[in-house]
Amino acid sequence: MRHGRYPFVAGFLAVPVLLYAVFVISPYVQTFFYSFTDWRGVSNRINVIGFDNYTALFSHDALRWALGHNGVLLVILPLVTIVLALFLAFMLNGGGRSDRAAVVGVRGAGFYKIVYFFPGVLSVAILAVLWQAVYRGDQGGLLNGLLMKLGIVDEQQPWAFVASPTWVLWCVIAVLVWAGVGFYLVLFTTAMQSIPRELFEAAILDGAGRAQTFFRVTLPLVLPGILSGAVLAFVTSLDEVVIALFLQAPGAITLPVVIADLPDGVVWLPANSAGSRVRVTLGAGHGDLVGVSA
């Protein structure tokens, strides 16, 4: 019986493993091979140049900047997203007031869950269009217009948010948090709703307030879900270059993971005498460190 089970399992795994090897493993292997060549991406000529591309990459300051920005994303983005989602999930599930010894969510919690989750279903292109309107560096920008009304920004000198090396990273993080917090809110809400109500009622009868109920009851019981969400947020924070590319402003340092100082928003490094160039795309594709392009 045992010997007949293995071919059965292998038959089900054969197709998924084949597809994974063709569409996931194979591109990684090809990318790694191309990094040792001077291939321009469109030509038929491919010459192996050894470690010239890597030498140019590691000798350029752009690598240090990119690693620094990736480090900030790895720490700030998961931390802010998880903490904010956890707070909102607790408020929606146990932040309401009741005359009875019971834990209730805030009024309209179901509606708020939909609102918070909605940005997560939007495509990257739609997110970019929305936030380009918010971050516009002229009087027509939503954020600049608000700050001008409040007297914080001079109408003749609006802030160029995504064109400023000081603000661009935090602007991108704000977009990513806004787009991702809804998913983790739903994840933590599901974990909180699985906690027996009797535990909350017993804590309330013993005189526990909201803070004590959260730290003594809710947090320990949803910790496995928080750890799973933190791992997922940590991994996805390395793959957020697309929104940065969409939000970039021409001619400025605009990308948190692809350091830019050129009109196309990408640092191109000369690799060899043949004219091949290395595109620094750290974090662009779960480990695609170097891509050779024209």
Explain what you see.
59% of the residues lie in helices and 4% in strands. The chain has a domain at 66-245: MetI-like fold, CATH 1.10.3720.10. A 3-stranded antiparallel β-sheet has the order 1-2-3. The longest helix is centred in the N-terminal third of the chain and has 34 residues, at 61-94. The chain is built from 10 helices and 3 strands. The protein is flat and about 75 Å long. Mean pLDDT is 76; it is low at 250-294. With 294 residues, it is mostly helical. Helix 5 (124-135) crosses helix 10 and helix 7 crosses helix 9. A hairpin with a 6-residue loop joins strand 1 and strand 2 (277-280).
Q: Layout of helices and strands, plus pairs?
A:
Layout: H1 2-34, H2 52-58, H3 61-94, H4 109-117, H5 124-135, H6 142-149, H7 168-193, H8 197-205, H9 210-236, H10 241-247, E1 268-270, E2 277-280, E3 290-293
Antiparallel strand pairs: 1-2, 2-3
Helix pairs in contact: 3-7, 3-9, 4-7, 5-10, 7-9
